[in-house]
Amino acid sequence: MSDHSQRIAREEVEEQILREALRIFNAHLEANQLRRTPERFAILEEIYRNTEHFDAEGLYIHMKNNNYRVSRATVYNTLELLVNCDLVRKHQFGKNQAQYERSYGYKQHDHLICLDCGSVIEFCDPRIQQIKDMMGDILKFKIHHHSLTLYGECNGACQKTAQVLK
Ligand SMILES: [Zn+2]
Ligand SMILES: [Zn+2]
Fold first, then answer.
1. Per-residue pLDDT tens over the stretch 41-56
2. What's the 34 CA to ligand 1 centre distance in angstroms?
3. 69 and 39 Cβ atoms separated by less than 8 Å
4. How far is ligand 2, taken at its centre, from the CA of residue 67, in Å?
5. Which domains, from first to last, does the chain contain?
């Protein structure tokens, strides 16, 4: 496949994920007799158009800067609803404000937090799945999920990592 058709294919997958996330959210609101307002769907869409980690206040400011008419309260309570239906994951990294990220259709990963500049770096290591399977077997548990966050100082490595990822 050419670069161009690869990009188109990726965009189509992203669109499908977004449509499915909207469908799940719609069903969740309906099932819980919550109001299905355009603001709530706009917030979900905005989150799914980005892959970054964000905090609630940052999302609110971002929405306002993009001329969405949403209140701070709407952003905060919509985020909670999205966490409740597993469309958004909430993280508490150290003492910082809670950070959020989209979760539906997104790869499994863990985080490395930089204590120097606050960067959040994602990594994926298949051995973690092996640990989950093995511990579940040994202890006769059905493991649901896990949380693993590494903390460290980068001494400038964050900038280099950002370049590599681009
Ligand atoms: Zn750093
Ligand atoms: Zn992440």
1. 999 999 999 888 999 9
2. 41
3. yes
4. 27
5. 3-102 (1.10.10.10), 110-165 (3.30.1490.190)
